[in-house]
Design a protein that fits this description.
The strands form three sheets. The chain has a six-stranded mixed β-sheet. A three-stranded antiparallel β-sheet has the order 3-4-5, with no helix packed on it. A two-stranded antiparallel ribbon has the order 1-2. The protein has three domains: about 150 residues, no CATH class; about 100 residues, no CATH class; about 140 residues, Ribonuclease H-like superfamily/Ribonuclease H (Nucleotidyltransferase, domain 5), CATH 3.30.420. Helix 16 runs parallel beside helix 19. A hairpin with a 2-residue loop joins strand 8 and strand 9. It starts with a helix and ends in an 11-residue tail after the last strand. The protein is an alpha+beta fold. The longest helix has 23 residues.
Length: about 425
């Protein structure tokens, strides 16, 4: 397994696919074969350590043997790959667990006490008042494994910009969407790109020394951006994805090459400056269609309401923000609005489905006690989840909002009836 790990991280960087990326794409960051091996090994290791500490079990001599093998005067021996391989060849079972830790830059203080690469000390203890956080330690060990690979991945094709751990959840979000929809052809293309297995003309020239021209525009002097972005042939494409991404060409930067040419996001790219964080609360704007209508700031009347959440393709290019809109209409004349309410979606989770649900929640929160609401939404998932009931909704996406919604309905004794209606019919007449 250690040899396979090394080959995945230290393959010929300019040739072939990036095997580490390919394994993470196929199995996920936590399902990567070596990660699973680490998790299973150390679960067993920690189960052994606790009784050893408690009872001074006979197996303690094996730990001391391992300790002597990897340390000298309390200092880890040569941590080179050759020394590590030699140590692994000499050790089996419980001894190899300690070897793996040292290969991940964890330093031993004692056989039940370790210092991680960030200089945090982790102690394995049987004290009930200070229990051993086994799964937390294992998670940190796995994190160390992935951080080590950052230094190897960025030597691969189109990966120079990877300087912090990869945000695999966000990187693979579209991959899992295609997989769920069983779009196998598109999935295969995306996997090829993300695993660094593409061989455009500039890579052939750089790696094999065989200069060739672009097969589409026949340009000879091509760079790393040509095949994916700047080839004139792409500007004439009728493919919707290509047409809708051409505006990003002006944003191409070497420091983001892994993002633009391989679709790989690093954790530092997900950091939003503090001044751009959405607020946890926003004031609600209420506009009356007729100045003579009474104010309804905190007690909305029962009746007919329409709600919607916005976002998606209407977002700013670089940041996602959503908003909600609610209209209370005349029961006798549904085309006649009485009050229009709107606000940005509060909180850091900015998705259109959450905005759709928030529109319902805001209405229920402000409606009069014992009120009756006929609420129309274009979110079919919101309507279907509501009618599945409180227990099912607690396990759905945006469970926090669903929990609050059902609590308010019960407290205020509200009769809420949700209806689904199609939207954007001008763009999709078949609706």
């Amino acid at each position: 397994m250690e040899q396979n790990r090394s080959s995945c991280g230290q393959c010929s960087f300019s040739k072939g696919r990036c095997r580490y990326s390919a394994l993470c794409i196929s199995y996920g960051q936590t399902g990567h074969p070596f990660v699973r091996a680490i998790r299973e090994l150390f679960v067993l290791w920690f189960k052994l350590i606790i009784p050893i500490i408690e009872n001074k079990a006979p197996i303690e001599k094996h730990i001391h043997k391992a300790w002597a093998l990897i340390t000298q005067d309390g200092t880890p021996k040569n941590g080179s790959q050759i020394a590590l391989a030699n140590s692994l060849n000499k050790s089996t079972g419980i001894i190899s667990h300690i070897i793996i830790l040292t290969s991940l830059n964890w330093k031993p203080i004692n056989y039940n006490e370790w210092r991680d690469p960030e200089d945090n000390v982790w102690t394995i203890s049987h004290d009930p008042e200070h229990p051993c956080p086994i799964m937390t330690i294992i998670k940190e060990i796995i994190t160390s494994y992935h951080k080590i690979h950052v230094g190897n991945i960025n030597k691969h094709y189109n990966s120079e910009s990877i300087t912090t751990p990869i945000a695999w959840k966000e990187t693979l979000a579209y991959y899992h969407t295609l997989k769920k929809k069983k779009k196998w052809s598109e999935l295969a293309i995306l996997e090829t790109v993300q695993a660094g297995a593409m061989w455009p003309a500039d890579r052939v020239a750089h790696t094999l020394g065989k200069h060739t021209s672009c097969p589409f525009c026949h340009e000879h002097n091509i760079d790393k951006w040509h095949a994916m972005w700047t080839c004139p042939h792409l500007a004439q494409s009728e493919d919707e994805d290509i047409k809708n991404s051409q505006h990003l060409i002006s944003s191409l930067k070497d420091e983001h090459i892994a993002y633009f040419n391989r679709g790989i996001l690093c954790e530092h790219q997900l950091t939003i400056p503090e001044h751009n964080h959405p607020l946890e609360e926003y004031p609600l704007s209420i506009v009356k269609s007729n100045p003579e209508l009474p104010d309804i700031d905190f007690s909305w009347p029962s009746g007919l309401y329409f709600g919607d959440g916005s976002g998606g393709i209407h977002n700013h290019d670089n940041i996602r923000r959503c908003g909600i809109g609610i209209t209370h209409v005349d029961n006798n004349s549904p085309h006649r609005p009485l009050y229009n309410m709107s606000m940005p979606l509060p909180g850091r989770i900015q998705t259109v489905p959450r905005a759709e649900l928030m529109a319902v929640l805001v209405t229920v929160t402000n409606i009069e006690y014992f009120g009756t609401i006929d609420f129309f939404t274009d979110s079919e998932i919101t309507k279907s989840t509501y009618y599945k009931g409180k227990k099912r909704a607690k396990h759905a996406n945006n469970a926090d909002l669903w929990t609050e919604l059902f609590q308010i309905i019960e407290t205020k004794n509200i009769d809420l009836r949700l209806y689904w209606m199609p939207s954007h019919t001008a763009d999709n007449p078949e609706k």
